[in-house]
Design brief:
The chain has 429 residues and is α/β, with parallel strands linked by helices. It is built from 15 helices and 14 strands. The chain has helices at residues 20-34, 58-70, 84-94, 101-112, 116-130, 134-145, 151-195, 211-222, 228-231, 272-277, 283-286, 302-315, 355-369, 385-394, 415-420, and strands at 5-13, 37-46, 75-78, 98-100, 200-205, 246-250, 258-262, 290-296, 323-328, 341-343, 347-349, 373-381, 396-402, 406-414. The protein is elongated, with a radius of gyration of 27 Å. The protein starts with a strand and ends in a 9-residue tail after the last helix. Its cofactor is Mg(2+). It holds the Pfam family MMR_HSR1.
């Protein structure tokens, strides 16, 4: 059996939001577990503001050191992004490896990255985070090696640090060039889709809300049997199961297809730099016609999770896109909520595990993305075959009858198409 590293978790409660702190520490526990670590204890401190030099108070540092010794913790993990000087000082005081929330998230991202783009993005984010913190990391290593103190070894250490810095800077440069290449390929793909005028719907929301489960259920409902398995994505009860953006075509028939994209989940205290690092995968969200904000409404903290998602979306400058809030896992709520049901145009309650809910969600999506579509009847003369085939390819055709003067079709088409082909409208009176 694999030996798990024992870790001690540390957090500061600044008392700003009720219940926020406990939730954050619980989440840190899950993050540590997702990195295959074993949390053996939690130390917390109530403080109005974080200590600039040490994150916690001086007395607390002593307590952490003693507790870590007692519980045989090998690593100490802090619940915030530590500044380079905090990291350096804590490492020195505690004489043990120190990690922070961001490092854990980056570590999980690294494990989960599958596509070339995700791998490049994670490596770049990690190096950018490490660069200003190298000094602290180096000092800790030198101390552990027992070579601190002598002038000659310090000189050698500084030289090594300089070399490491330069190597990392070079690699960051390479990575951003490679990412630009991948991003270009993605843009070509997107242009093809835009030209084909297929609406793009993006699933967004907190990690573990059920985004991938919804995508898979849609594939189950609307894909051919033989391609179901290869199209599906990973859904799992763990943080950040999805790192790559996957776009799938959902074929509901009658020219009412849409593309559905699954994206990386958001989390509380996700560092700004990391959101930016994922910019190119999140471009699908920026280009979406409609966002489905998936919320796990069985989670007691769902309101805070929604808040985090809203913040992250506005960081991505997509805060004003049309949104449907999908309250998912209604089957798991402690207070039963009837589902599927909608509340106004913007909110629906479903369970991704239920077929009826998926059909309901699909009809709500179609109503929204095809809101600019209108029912019309056209009479298209037989010598205008190209107009007829345009409607057959781009409109939702209800009926087609061949009459003496031409083809009579009843369709739901885009308003722009109705205006363009106004002369063929079959106005009865
Ligand atoms: N009971 C119940 N469980 C659900 C429902 N939807 C999803 N789940 C479960 O919730 C867990 C997380 O689902 P995912 O679809 O992987 O969540 P996600 O939003 O894609 O998560 P990330 O990829 O980490 O961002 C899985 O174990 C699902 O089986 C639901 O409606 N009801
Ligand atoms: Mg997922």
């Amino acid at each position: 059996m694999e030996v798990r590293e024992q870790v001690l978790l540390v957090g500061v409660d600044d008392g700003t939001t009720d219940g926020d702190f406990e939730r954050s520490m619980e989440e840190l526990k899950s993050l540590a577990k997702a990195c295959f670590m074993e949390p053996v204890g939690i130390i917390t401190q109530k403080m109005e503001s974080i200590n600039k030099g040490l994150y916690v108070g001086t007395g607390k540092v002593r307590e952490i050191k003693e507790t870590a010794g007692l519980l045989e913790a090998e690593v100490i993990i802090f619940d915030d992004a530590l500044s380079p000087s905090q990291l350096k000082n804590l490492q020195k005081e505690l004489n043990k490896p120190v990690l922070d929330r961001t490092t854990l998230i980056l570590d999980i991202f690294e494990r989960r990255a599958r596509t070339r783009e995700a791998k490049l993005q994670v490596e770049s984010a990690k190096l950018k985070y490490m660069l200003p913190r190298l000094v602290g990391m180096h000092e800790a290593l030198t101390r552990q090696g027992g070579t601190s103190g002598s002038m000659s070894s310090r000189g050698a250490g500084e030289k090594k640090l300089e070399l490491d810095k330069r190597r990392i800077e070079r690699r960051i440069g390479e990575l951003s060039r490679e990412l630009e290449e991948v991003s270009k390929e993605r843009r070509v793909q997107r242009k093809k889709r835009v030209d084909a005028r297929i609406p793009l719907v993006a699933l967004v929301g907190y990690t573990n809300a059920g985004k991938s489960t919804i995508l898979n259920a849609m594939i189950d409902a609307y894909a051919e049997d033989n391609e179901k398995n290869e199209k599906k994505v990973l859904e799992k009860d763990m943080l950040f199961a999805t790192l790559d953006t996957t776009v799938r075509r959902i074929c509901t028939g009658n020219n009412r297809d849409f593309l559905l994209s699954d994206t990386v989940g958001f989390i509380h205290k996700l560092p700004h730099g990391l959101v930016k690092a994922f910019h190119s995968t999140l471009e699908e969200v920026e280009n979406a016609d409609l966002l489905l904000h998936v919320v796990d409404c069985s989670d007691p903290c769902f309101r805070e999770h929604m808040q985090t998602t809203h913040q992250t979306l506005s960081e991505l400058n997509v805060g004003d896109k049309p949104v449907i809030t999908v309250y998912n896992k209604a089957d798991k709520c402690s207070e039963p909520i009837p589902f599927p049901q909608s509340s106004g145009k913007e909110k629906i309650y479903i369970s991704a595990k239920e077929k009826k809910s998926i059909a309901f969600l699909t009809s709500i999506i179609l109503d929204r993305i095809y809101a600019d579509y209108v029912w019309e009847e056209f009479m298209i003369p037989y010598d205008k075959g190209s107009v007829l085939s345009y409607f057959m390819d781009h409109a939702h055709v209800d009926s087609l009858e061949h009459e003496e003067k031409g083809a009579r079709i009843k369709v739901k088409c885009h308003k722009a198409d109705r205006d363009k082909y106004r002369e063929y409208l079959d106005e009865k009176d």
